[in-house]
Amino acid sequence: MPFTVLMVGVVVLTGALSYSTGSQAVNTVSQHLLQEMVARVGQAVNRHVVGSAAVLEAAFPTGLEVPDTIDAELDTLRTRFWIATSLHTDPNNFVYYGNQHGQAIGLLRLSSDEAELRYKLRADEFRGFSRFSGINGALGPKTFEKKLFDPRERPWYKAAERSLSSAWSAIYIDFTTEELVATRARRVLDAQGELQGVVATDISLQRLNLFVSNLPISSHGVAFIIEPDGKLIASSSGPNIKRLPGGGSERLMAIDSVNPLQRAAYQQVRDRLQSASLGVGPRALAFDGPNGETVEMAFDRVLDQAGLYWLIVVAVPRSDFMQGITANIFRTALIGLLGVIAAVVLGWRIVGWVDRDIKRLTEAAKLVGEGRLGAPLEVYRNDEIGVLASTFRKMQYRLRTDVLTGLSNREMLLHSITQRIEHKRRERDALSFALLFVDLNNFKLINDHLGHDAGDRVLMEIATRLSKVVRPGDVVARYAGDEFVLLINDIPSRQVADQVRRKLEATLLEPVQQVDLGSVPDGAGFGGAVGLAMYPMDGDTAELLIARADQEMYERKRAWRLDA
User: Do residues 445 and 504 touch, judged by C-beta distance below 8 A?
Assistant: First the structure.
């Protein structure tokens, strides 16, 4: 009974602490999360508008002499417009120009190789469309618009007439596509500084609206972009254009949205616009939502030197953030109840299960202490004991392995040789095994001339080569510095072992790939001396075999130096 009461108390206390901690975390995390979401939308907006100024400059470079009419300059304008639409094809794939005479020319890039030229040479004629391929491709058949297009009456033209520099037109519904478009326009002047026409590039807001619609907001959250007057630019909760019953369309106001949370969030921003308390940079706040629930909201402004002024708003009901915490409390209560039952029924069995794995850990630790570094540890769990067992296996691996090359280290080599000797004595195996002691030639010159980092790369490459020479079951170890030892199993004779040695020496003489040895003196002499010892002819202990192989290696190295 005391244990059961304790468990129930722990469950209740855990649930209360979880709710309290989670609520505090929501206060902090939700604000940062929403501000980050606002910043992400701001980055998307900037990606849409950042290239427009460069596109206009490419279409009509500042100071370029402007023709009075476009008739004679049609091909030249088409070429410049093709280049301009190549700068930022997405989203600035449409550049166009209208002059004081009502003439117009525009180029719409359909792909990297396809475009459509839209132009009219008289104010009273309909604009014609012709497709072509490549920058100087021949114009295809001409089709005509059904509505009369006069550039001088378009919002972008009027906006540029009123501005001494680049200007954004008011967002409008496109004449052709019936989608929201923002246009950046710039005045084009003649030699006397008089207005000759206006060059402009469109940014379709359809993709921006699609980006906002696909934002990973919560199930009840909303994100939207508006102009200061409340007109929607993009929204995650619905369209930004309202279709009229009699045909045509008009822009949708945020206050008229069918989403009550969007209406409430806009009212919060509108109140701050009216009180001039928007501040600088992303801001977060909380307010009482439509159903009396707390809503977390963040907003920011998007401004540029051409007069762009948009507002980004993201709002999420606080309950959306708390859903996981509330569900976690119920899960905690249920798990606690099951835990009480399970603890009473299975308590002793769990204790025995834990005790068994602890004993395995203890036994493995004893074996490692006796020098048996490869002692197996069959403990696989997902709790602290499992972490301890995994850490113990990693420790065993590090004790057996050379850190730089990943080969067996000296201690593991000695242990492997001793085990091999004991096995052959026990099984009375007639086949011998061989030790090959490798010492690299001129390795000190690499460290002295190229540095220790280059030396380490050479050692790692040599280790890889040695590992490829041996068979499964053989052992390759880094003995010390630039010395390696190979334990080769089941060698019937010294002649076979000598063949392995020659193959090994040939492998060592192959050019080094990881380091350029051209600047190292005597670099052509790089390779290695390989000493050989056979069990049991050259020794019956690990120490004797290594000493014999080491001695022969030095004899071969002296002979190599005399030959060199």
Answer: no
